[in-house]
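User: Here's a chain of 77 residues. Predict its fold as tokens.
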Amino acid sequence: MIITHIIPKDDFTLHVTSEDARSGLFNITHYLESEVFLPLKELKNFKKVKNGKYFIEWDCGADLSADTIEARWQLIK
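Assistant: Prediction complete.
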């Protein structure tokens, strides 16, 4: 999957759109207890997500692959 758009939401979900126009929500709350993701508990840090097309990343070093997102997102119909 190639990620084309990411919109971070206030509830720690990401609205993700893929190159083939699929769209879904990916919840990162269960990652927030991992050491590298701890800075993302602050909403201002979470909202600074960057799109690497095949992954997403934050300044703190946390990242998620497009494959991980695709495997666990909830598609929006």
